[in-house]
Amino acid sequence: MTALLYVLGVVVFVAAILVSIGLHELGHMIPAKAFGGKVTQYFIGFGPTVWSRQVGETEYGVKAIPLGGYVKIVGMLPPGADDLGEVEHDENGERVLRVRKSNTGMFTQLISDARAAEWEHVKPGDEGRLFYRMAWWKKVVVMAGGPTVNILIAFFLFWGVYATYGNPVEPNVEPVVEEVLDCVVPYSEDGRTCEPTDEVTPAKLAGLQPGDEFVAVNGRPVTSWEELQDQIRSNSDGEVTLLIDRGGEQLEVTTNTIVTARPISEDPTDETLTQVGFLGVQPTVDGLVHGGPLYTVRDMGDKTVHSLQALAQLPVKVWGVAKAIVGVEERAADSPVSIVGGGRIAGETASTDLIPNDSKIAFLALIVGGFNLFIGLFNFVPLLPLDGGHIAGALYEALRRGLARLRRRPDPGYVDVARLLPVAYVVASALLVMGVVLIVGDLVAPVDTGF
């Protein structure tokens, strides 16, 4: 049964990521078509084609490697002035622009070949539908549509979990009685049942009840469990006067604390025992925070800050994973993971007996939401071949044309993103290397989930 649940968790995670990829690409394709652009392909995955179907001018399909997706929008790269050939006519007499290849210099050749490959998809009559000829704001909408969809997916997943199950944030320990202990059990025997020879706790003798909220200790107000704990521990075996709130009514209770050995270090691994005052109550721990859309937006704002910090440290973190692969150091708990690592975490979450089923569903949704938020933010990085690189190019085009109008100068024309292709290939190569390192790391040195 455990193995079946593990497989189910992996399948659910992978399916959710594939759906997210598909929706991401729809975020590009739908506005591109709405603005009159020509989209010839819509694929989920890379590599060999598993299935495809032609619908109108667009081929829809699935490829063998489910590590991404793409839509082919015709005319992403403009023809360079040096690459344009003569205007020719086809057999039907239509005017056709021919793009010829240049052979001077490695980078020049690379750019020229890319332009030529791009313009092989341009057919007679497509001139007004090319992406590079769209208004700058349309380019921004088209390229921002994909990552924006990922962020919206994350928002709705987070909102759904926070509104129903709750947000499992850092536990909030309140100065409210959850349980009154019947007897004093030595720390070394913690967890056993009471025996006739065990001493009754001061809280039991004082008549404290679950739900009682501590207001003051010996006349000193308390607003947190830590303040209450400090005052009880420092009280030793003296008399203590407790002001409590019980159902809206304030009551004053007097008792004597006793001295017992307990660990008091904030380090959970330090179990050094110290003789301190003891009352005998367990606090109320609220580990779930419920909230609506505004709470979700604020929470996603915090997650965005953390994600951007993680993006800035990504190369260093990936280097740490590489060292974990060869056994130089342990895999850090906060290291990035690939889709393979995400699937493993989802499988372990689904198959563990340590958390109830409703928690499993919530955690799986949060994992998928976290992946979508990171993917969305990552794609906004202003570097080609990421969506943010095209957005940056469109914004630069708008700025350049706007300044030209203000200065009453000629229109400088479209921004030639093809000139940045060498940078795009370097970035793509770096992303490929990091992806391979993370996948290998998730296989041979996975993150310890604690399940």
TrEMBL record:
Transmembrane segments: 6-23, 140-162, 361-381, 417-441
Required co-factors: Zn(2+)
Boundaries of every PDZ domain copy: 201-246
Sorted UniProt keywords: Hydrolase, Membrane, Metalloprotease, Protease, Transmembrane, Transmembrane helix, Zinc
Residue stretches making up the Peptidase M50 domain: 13-403
Single GO biological process annotation from the record: proteolysis
Assigned protein family: Belongs to the peptidase M50B family.
Protein name, UniProt field: Site-2 protease family protein
Organism the protein comes from: Nocardioides bigeumensis
Classification of source organism: Bacteria, Bacillati, Actinomycetota, Actinomycetes, Propionibacteriales
